[in-house]
Amino acid sequence: MSFRPISISLSPNTEKDDIRLALKLIFQPWQWKKGDKISKLETDFKKYFGVKHAISFNSGRSALLAILKSLNLKKEDEVLLQAFTCNAASNPILWTHSTGSGQAGLKPVYVDCNTETFNLDLEDLKRKITKKSRVLMAQHMFGLPDDLDEILKIRQKNNLILIEDCAHSLGATYKGKKVGTFGKVAFFSFSRDKVISSVYGGLAITNDIELAKKIKDFQKKAGFPSNFWIFQQLLHPILMNFLILPTYRFLGKYLIVLFQRLQILSKAVHWKEKRGKKPGYFPKSLPNALAALAYLQFKKLEKFNIHRREIAKLYFDNLKDNVFKLPQTGSDREHIFLRFAIRHPKARQIIKKAWKKNILIGDWYNSPIAPKDTQLEKMQYQIGSCPKAEQLSRETLNLPTNIIISTNDAKEIIDFLKTYEN
């Protein structure tokens, strides 16, 4: 019996070269904050997307906050974003004009979802646009590109600023064009379970010279996170792969909790964020050590995404004729399947049963604004305002597609799920 789980989120992108780099950096503290990897990462992003500007941050939410603070928006201006999202998308909207209380910023307006694609319900979007609407965020959930032709029409008709949330979709395309290049600006996340991972990290891209200058000024004023915080992130891939994952079934699961309580490891979401408050390590610039981790991962992006599509095809081929509802895809777009999201009325029950078998399938998202213990009223979300998103949060389960998931792992997951055919 293997103690190492089939996992969807515990350092899922980490390979041997990533661990070696993290180990090397642990003993090079002079490389932690300043170094050449920051500019190398930003330069490679500019080349990859064919854009003029790329500005890095220590998280996707820091990048989004920088964008929103640079757009000359007024307090109570409305930002349209879909429900069935993470509080990392909601909080920067609330933080824009506040000191961290989350009570005096821009106004988030939540749009319902298309239950087949997990992205924006365009009819609900049209209904919720008002005279105060200024910004529209398109999320590209699970690496499935949104209907950008229609979104651009709605944007133009209503004079909205389009921000692409590409936290799930690095490398995806729509009609042959890379997602992230359709709006005024886009942002990416490099957190521990995203397309590429530096444990924490993010970046904004744009062709708008004036906006880029303001974002760069914001980045410079934000400064770097503390050495202790950087050390926490460097420890993550090391402890996960040498200690936690190999012993997960009998010890590792408890070590995660212990290390986080002792602040040896950081949490993906701080408790303050679940209450609309801003932790002190946001917003910050991306430190060189984490830029180095992200840079190494970015060089492997194509390999990662080819693997994700191959595993997704295996799921499609083997689950298409049973009780699970599979994601709807379009022939005019190239999906990357950060996770392979399926639906079943007993999703929570299936997830719990799988975990008992050491198959750690996921539950992105188990609330209209995840994580599930997020205080929805602090996010200014009203229960019942997005019924489809609320339905998805009850019925969605996610299957891993990451680079460490083998064909045999995927087949084991499929065999487990087929027990629910009847």
Describe the protein.
- The structure is a single chain.
- The protein has 422 residues and is of the alpha/beta class.
- It has a domain at 31-222: Type I PLP-dependent aspartate aminotransferase-like (Major domain) (Aspartate Aminotransferase, domain 2), CATH 3.40.640.
- 39% of the residues lie in helices and 14% in strands.
- The protein is built from 14 helices and 16 strands.
- The chain has helices at 16-26, 37-49, 60-69, 87-95, 122-128, 148-157, 209-222, 227-244, 248-261, 288-298, 301-319, 347-356, 387-395, 407-417; strands spanning 6-7, 53-57, 78-82, 85-86, 107-111, 133-138, 161-165, 173-174, 177-178, 185-189, 202-206, 333-334, 339-343, 359-360, 369-370, 396-400.
- The strands form five sheets. The chain has a seven-stranded mixed sheet with strand order 2-11-10-7-6-3-5, with helices on both faces. A three-stranded antiparallel sheet has the order 9-8-12, with no helix packed on it.
- A hairpin with a 2-residue loop joins strand 8 and strand 9.
- Helix 2 (37-49) runs parallel beside helix 10 (288-298) and helix 3 (60-69) packs parallel to helix 4 (87-95).
- The longest helix has 19 residues, at 301-319.
- Residues 99-103 have low confidence and may be disordered.
Q: In the CATH hierarchy, what is the class of the domain at 31-222?
A: Alpha Beta
Largest sheet: 7 strands, mixed
Rg computed from alpha carbons, rounded to a whole number of angstroms:
20 Å
SSE string, helices as H and strands as E: EHHEHEEHEHEHEEEEEHHHHHEEHEEHEH
The span between the termini is 28 Å
Report strand order across the widest sheet: 2-11-10-7-6-3-5
Helix content: 25-40%
Please count the beta strands (DSSP E, at least 2 residues each).
Answer: 16
Mean pLDDT: 95
Give the name of the CATH architecture of the domain at 31-222.
Answer: 3-Layer(aba) Sandwich
Low-confidence stretches: 99-103
Shape: globular
Q: Could you say what the CATH topology of the domain at 31-222 is called?
A: Aspartate Aminotransferase, domain 2
DSSP helix count? 14
Structural class: alpha/beta
- Percent of residues in β-strands: 5-15%
Question: Mind telling me the CATH superfamily name of the domain at 31-222?
Answer: Type I PLP-dependent aspartate aminotransferase-like (Major domain)
